[in-house]
Amino acid sequence: MVRHRKHWLWWAPRLLAAAFLGFLALFSLDVIAPEATAGEIALGLLLHNIPVLVLLGMLVVAWRLDAVGAAAFAAAGSFYVIMVVGRAGVPWYTALSWSAIIAGPAFVIAGLFWLNWQRNRPRRR
């Protein structure tokens, strides 16, 4: 195994990202209802998990390229903040505090990917 992969900074963003995606996937379980058919439930789960699937694809790429992980999770967190703050009828400061629950971990993961990328990139003289 490559030496840098034993370091905690290599594993931390990958494991946290996997846990974060599992957390996000839990929100899709609200489509399960006794009156819904199996097809409706399957379609609802698919539609609710599109962001999770996109981030999962980014995590697969980021497993090798830390810069991709940093950019993807920072973009996902920023997009979520903009989406929540832009909602009508909610004061911006309330929306910002709500979005911290989802965007906060995404920004932490992006920061960890960025730190690992900075640590392992070749240095120019």
Give the SSE layout.
Layout (H helix, E strand, L loop, with lengths): L7 H19 L11 H11 L1 H13 L3 H20 L6 H29 L5
Number of strands: 0
Contiguous helical run count: 5
Radius of gyration: 17 Å
Distance between the termini: 28 Å
Helix fraction bin: over 70%
Beta-strand portion reads under 5%
Q: Tell me the domain tally.
A: 1
Uncertain parts: none
Structural class: mainly alpha
Largest sheet: none
> Can you write the helix and strand succession as a string?
HHHHH
Average pLDDT over all residues: 89
Shape: globular
In short:
The protein is mainly alpha-helical. It contains five helices and no strands.
Structure description:
- By secondary structure, the protein is mainly α.
- The protein has one domain (13-120).
- It has helices spanning 8-26, 38-48, 50-62, 66-85, 92-120.
- Helix 4 (66-85) packs antiparallel against helix 5 (92-120).
- The longest helix is centred in the last third of the chain and has 29 residues, at 92-120.
- It is globular and about 65 Å long.
- The chain starts with 7 loop residues before the first helix and ends in a 5-residue tail after the last helix.
- The mean pLDDT is 89.
Give short descriptive properties of this protein:
125 residues, mainly alpha, 5 helices
